[in-house]
Design a protein that fits this description.
The structure holds two protein chains of two kinds. By secondary structure, chain A is an alpha/beta fold. Chain A folds into two domains: 80 residues, Fe-S cluster assembly (FSCA) (GMP Synthetase, Chain A, domain 3); 70 residues, no CATH class. Helices cover 18% and strands 21% of the residues of chain A. Chain A has three helices and seven strands. In chain A, the strands form two sheets. In chain A, strands 4-7-6-5 form a four-stranded mixed beta sheet. Chain A has a three-stranded mixed beta sheet with strand order 1-2-3, with helices on one face. Chain A is elongated, with a radius of gyration of 18 Å. By secondary structure, chain B is mainly α. Chain B has a single domain, classed as Ferritin, core subunit, four-helix bundle (Ferritin, Up-down Bundle), CATH 1.20.1260.10. Chain B has ten helices and no strands. Chain B is globular. The chains are: A alpha/beta, B mainly alpha. At the A-B interface, loops of A face α2 and α5 of B. Chain A: It holds the Pfam family FeS_assembly_P. Chain A: This is Phenylacetate-CoA oxygenase subunit PaaJ. Chain B: Pfam families: PaaA_PaaC. Chain B: InterPro entries: Aromatic_CoA_ox/epox (IPR052703), Ferritin-like (IPR012347), Ferritin-like_SF (IPR009078), PaaA_PaaC (IPR007814), PaaC (IPR011882). Chain B: One of its GO terms (cellular component) is cytosol.
Chain lengths: 163, 261
Amino acid sequence: MNLVRSRRDEAWAVLQTVLDPEVPALSLVELGIVRELREDADGGFTVVLTPTYSGCPATELIETEVRTALQDFQPLRIEQRRSPAWTTDWIGPEAREKLRQYGIAPPSGTAAVTQPLRLHESIPCPRCGSAKSERLSAFGSTACKALYRCTACREPFEYFKPI
Amino acid sequence: MGAMKLSNTHTQRYLLRIADAALILSQRNSEWCGHGPILEEDLAQANMALDLLGQARALLTHAGAADGLDEDQLAMLRLEHQFLNPVLFELPHAVDGRRPGDFAFTVVRNFLTAAWFNLLWTKLLDSCDTELAAIAEKSLKEARYHLQHSADWCVRLGDGTADSQVRMQAALERAWPYLGELFEGDEVDAAAEAEKLGPSWASLQAEWRALVEPVLAQATLKLPKDRPNAHRGRHGAHSEHLGHLLSDLQYLQRAYPGGTW
């Protein structure tokens, strides 16, 4: 059994602790924002990030937080990669459950690519579990969320839009 | 300080036309921030304006790279005649220019232009310019939400009360004469098409009509009469409104040159 962790494993472990500034229930890794971590020939590391939305105001902050978290892994390079475009399909089942427990309804199903886009009229409530809710607003406090209200417990909640 | 020097190649002009359409519409729609007719629309307009701003930033960065200019220099320091957006994008929300303006016009313009952006981004996925294709891939996802949202509002207000119907029809009549500029080909388009950079804008018209006409019909709005295009914003000839918009957008960089935070 190899008990010695590689430098890359250590860097990856650190990256998994960096939370998204707008959805602090999930790490940047769980959200799929960290696309790649490479150990370079000079012993440094390259982190490849992808922006969620074109205008996401957290993009620069995320880069700074990664830089700070990995300050012991120099020389550190950060690349922004736009393609393939970020999708909520990269948020795994465990991360979706964490979102729900945090009070944000996770994206339902996979992101539509070709069909006409429809925001679901009813999303299961992340608080009481009722299947019935109503859409209040297609846009919420951030570009990635819509606002719903549960018709059973009457609590409003945010819904992470599939994209 | 003289006007910024741009290489003005066909490629750069093709990119700037799209970048400026997104930038100027973003600036216009953000005028609703804090003034939306309802809170939900205040949020929606601000969110969609932010998407457009992000798209514009990516395109400006790309368009300026050849001249060593960054997104901020292009957005904040170009003069009026150096902006290449079609005139439709710069029109104020209200005929008399009063702010925040006529929400019917906002809805109509957002719908007509979101349909156009959707088609444009879709075609740009096949661009030989990999950076442009990547920007299109990302932008298309956002533009689809914009199209859905503005189409919903078109139907709700068009097929709404007698008053909202009249206002939506008037807004459509006001926007229509400016649409020709979105579907006119010229030497810049021809070059883009030949080099597989992107589609000639003229080639988008038939699909655009197929996309918007069913929604306008559902909204009980009548199609206005087509007229030959009389607008040349893509060549830098703008309406009186762009200068006023830029005086807002560029104020800080003009007052405090080079200022950052």
